[in-house]
Design goal:
Elements lengths: L9 H9 L3 H36 L10 H47 L9 H13 L2 H26 L3 H10 L2 H36 L1 H7 L2 H53 L1 E2 L2 E2 L6 H43 L20 E9 L5 E10 L4 E6 L5 H9 L4 E7 L2 E2 L5 H5 L2 E4 L8 E2 H5 L8 H10 L3 H5 L7 E2 L8 H15 L3 E5 L7 H14 L4 E5 L11 E5 L1 H25 L1
Helix pairs in contact: 1-10, 2-3, 2-5, 2-10, 3-4, 3-5, 4-7, 5-6, 5-10, 6-9, 7-9, 7-10, 9-10, 14-16, 16-17
């Protein structure tokens, strides 16, 4: 697994996420611009209407009712503008939903391709927070900021042209003061961006920490450490609250600064127009440079001239939050999970495969060895116990067999190289059980049907009876017995037996066990090993375990040593040193 050398920036990743949604966003932009055009027409109609009423009130014109078309045009503007705004919001939300759903699907596919290697990117709690919380952090950026960033340029230009037709000086004043708003938006937004990134990181770590404590609540209660864990959660929650308030303070500060400068600019324009109507301008005393209808038209448009800029400032933190989220997701998105080439179609068969490993080695991050070169033959139906010290490569061997880890050397399945096989077809012939059984919240039947969706109730009862779990469940609610988070309601040994029932439903000819009894007491471990012995007859088995109690029935025992692995690492370090010294020697 390697990272891309030309890693894109968070902004480039956001652009890629939005590329498929460009038509929705363009439609939202066009609707917003249509609303701006209607705003100009509405302001002109209102200014002309109030001007006519003012002249009639002063007796300079006969009081007459506006023409029907006039009122119809004004009513059309008043009705269409909210409709266009609602349409813009609907299209923006649609684009946001689509973009977040596509990104979440990509992350889930990447996690599925990584398999057990996902542990390198954090705990399940932290990964869950990334897939849920940090993907949702893109909502404001897509649904608000994207369109608003364009409106902040186009709408002021449109309104500036309309205002310039009535007063060039008023238009110039607005265009000169407009840059102040984005200037202070950037200055304050930089601090908000840093705070948002730190907040997302804290949120992910807090989610992972909380999930770990919830999973280990039974152990904490037995050790009498539940109160201590509760205090740690309270302290972490308080720290998270303080950081959240800090981000909100920056967001409110940004909005306050933008509102202040916008109000100051509008007041400056209003002062010019008011003094002009009174004829007391220093450079035009006794003159009215802007008539009353035009002055009213400009004042109606002045707040709307700055409104897109103010709204962009309010939404600027959404961009900072989205970039921070993409920065946190970058390691997972940049991962390149290894997978077989899918060149050889593997026939579905119930016969156990023959495995042949020649000089098989697995490399980890930075090219360091995780499994020293290994020669191994596994005959069909043979059951093998793999042991060794921590770090000797036991789990790495299983990851290579599962098709998730790249390997060196040869790993042949029935004469075909594993790197050439279709991974999905190969994995259908595998049954895997680790330290944590794959049990979800729901009924026993729902969990069993994760392995065999089409299995009937009679088949489920049969496999539960085989793993000696049906008498216990029959005394409760049978197949409808509900399990809590991570199988709460059953003991550790019972959960592993339920996982064995899932393996039986898969009917896989090769079973892989990775420390399946690590968290069980001695009696439960012996009972589970006895079940594995009875149920695995006729299948190939590779069983990784530190302990050999209850495993006397295996056909062969393989011990992986760390000495060979350390020797391989020293060889790699020596080769790297030689490569670095070669240029100097040649010179």
């Amino acid at each position: 697994m390697t990272a891309a050398t030309d890693s894109p920036t968070p902004r480039q990743r956001l652009a890629r996420c939005l590329a498929p949604q460009r038509w929705w966003l363009r439609g939202a932009l066009l609707l917003a611009l249509g609303g701006a055009v209607l705003l100009v027409a509405q302001s002109w109609l209102l200014a002309a209407l109030f001007s006519r009423w003012l002249l009639a009130w002063q007796g300079e014109a006969a009081p007459t009712l506006p023409a029907p078309w006039w009122l119809a045009a004004l009513a059309t503007c008043l009705v269409l503008r909210p409709l266009l705004h609602a349409g813009r919001e609907a299209l923006s939300r649609r684009a946001s939903r689509n973009a977040r759903a596509a990104l979440r699907l990509e992350l889930l596919e990447r996690l599925g391709q990584l398999g057990p290697l996902r542990r390198r990117f954090g705990s399940d709690g932290a990964l869950g927070a990334q897939v849920l919380e940090q993907v949702d952090a893109l909502d404001g950026y897509v649904s608000r900021y994207q369109v608003q960033s364009r409106l902040a340029v186009l709408v002021p230009l449109l309104l500036g042209v309309a205002i310039a037709l009535h007063s060039r000086l008023a238009a110039a004043l607005m265009l000169m003061t407009a840059p102040l708003v984005p200037l202070f938006m950037v200055l304050v937004g930089r601090a908000a961006a840093g705070a948002s990134r730190r907040q997302l990181d804290t949120q992910a770590r807090l989610g992972g920490h909380f999930l770990d404590l919830v999973r280990g609540m039974g152990t904490l209660q037995r050790l009498g450490a539940a109160a201590q864990a509760s205090r740690r959660i309270a302290a972490a929650s308080e720290a998270y609250r303080e950081r959240t308030m800090g981000v909100l303070r920056l967001a409110f500060l940004s909005s306050a600064v933008l509102e202040f400068f916008s109000a100051l600019a509008i007041a400056l324009v209003a002062l010019y127009l008011g003094l002009g109507l009174l004829g007391v301008l220093p450079w035009a005393k006794g003159e009215v440079p802007v008539s009353y209808p035009s002055a009213l038209f400009i004042l109606l448009l002045a707040p709307e001239f700055y409104a897109p800029l103010r709204q962009l400032g309010a939404d600027y933190h959404a961009r900072a939050e989205a970039e921070g989220a993409m920065r946190e997701l970058a390691p997972l998105l940049e991962s390149r999970p290894w997978r077989p080439a899918d060149r050889v179609a593997l026939a579905d068969t119930a016969a156990p495969p023959r495995l042949a490993c020649r000089n098989l080695a697995v490399a980890g991050d930075a090219g360091r060895r995780r499994l020293a070169p290994l020669d191994l033959d596994l005959a069909p139906g043979e059951r093998l116990l793999v042991q060794g010290e921590s770090g000797s490569g036991k789990s790495s061997l299983l990851e290579a067999l599962l098709g998730f880890a790249p390997y060196e050397g040869s790993l042949a399945v029935d004469g075909h190289e594993l790197a050439e096989l279709e991974r999905e077809a190969w994995q259908r012939r595998l049954g895997y059980l680790g330290q944590q059984p794959p049990v979800l919240r729901g009924s026993v039947a729902d969990n069993l049907r994760l392995s065999a969706p089409e299995a009937g109730d009679s088949e489920l009862v049969a496999v539960l009876d085989q793993v000696e779990l049906w008498p216990l469940l029959a005394a409760r609610q049978g197949l409808a017995t509900l399990l809590g988070e991570r199988g709460r309601g059953l003991s550790g040994g019972q959960l592993q037996r339920l996982a064995l029932a899932q393996l039986l439903l898969r009917e896989a000819p090769l079973w892989l066990f990775d420390e399946a009894t690590a968290h069980l007491d001695l009696d439960a471990a012996r009972r589970l090993n006895g079940l594995i012995e009875r149920l695995s007859r006729g299948r190939s088995v590779i069983l990784v375990s530190h302990e050999a109690d209850g495993l006397e029935w295996v056909d062969r025992r393989l011990v992986l040593g760390t000495a060979a692995l350390r020797q391989e690492r020293r060889k790699e370090e020596w080769r790297e040193e030689m490569r670095e010294e070669m240029p100097s020697c040649q010179s």
